[in-house]
User: Fold this.
Amino acid sequence: MSWSAPPVAKSGFLTIPTKPNAAISYSFFPATTSPASSSHNALIVFVNGLGLPASSWVPTIASLQKLVPTCPAILTYDRFGQGLTTSRDPLDGQRGKELGHDLLDVANDLHEIILWVAASELGLQSPDVEGGKARLLLVGASIGAPIARLFVQNHEGMASGMIILDSNIANVNYSDFLPDPDSSDFDGGSLLSDDCTLEQYREARLKLTRIFDLKVKNSESLDRSNSSVLLPYSYQPKLVGIGKAGPLLSVVGHDPETFADLSYDMMGTPKSLSKITNEYWAEYNEGLTKITDEGKCKGVVIARGCGHFIQKDNPEFVAQQISGMITELGW
Assistant:
């Protein structure tokens, strides 16, 4: 795959009112439209996962601006403790935040970041942004998806659209949906296969739960232990966007075969175990298609040939998904 270099972005650091002493790295890509264009005040916001920083979106942005000559403005940023943002979240370690800040804190930070960027780059004041004049299209990858959901849930009337790229499973631990081999009702006959003995299953399950269970710590000090309380269901609550209507929604899932291959190559996870993960993930993604109004989501799209990091594996595919939604929004 190849892509042309994107226009030079305005990059730097900003601070938000509630955390004035903690600088946040951001990049703003101006719209490639005239002020008279219908998309001039639109803003595409990329929300990172835990595994990749803001710079991971650059190939997607380059492809998008090639696909859409009249591309809206774009915002990328690194959360506290991620990528170029070396500041830690001032909430960490405070009373009630002994385990770190949570997803809702991050969603509220995003709200303040958007208000700052809209004022400084789009000339829109807070009441205008809150009223939907910034017309947001949120693109969330992995844990960026639940962050984007919480943003829209708690700041209604601001989003026109949302693209979810292989959402993090926010409501359960891996140890919840991967059967416990020491449980009395463990059905080894249906779960074990030629590529996975009982001992291999036990070892692989333990490795996955030590990495992905909700209480596992990460470099951002992003506490996920209450994620199942913040977002207990994949299929609700309904999101409310601009005009009190549900936003356009695209739910993208990884290619199950590619995911199984990569999981085996990178972590030694037996493919029969990845099959369990894929089945649960597919069910979770199907639920996500229901968080907007009927007719606003066309079902789950599978990113063929992609593992979990879809924007890394195929940035042109992601650009096509965004381009399609821009067209659908009439920008």
Observations:
- The longest strand covers residues 19-29.
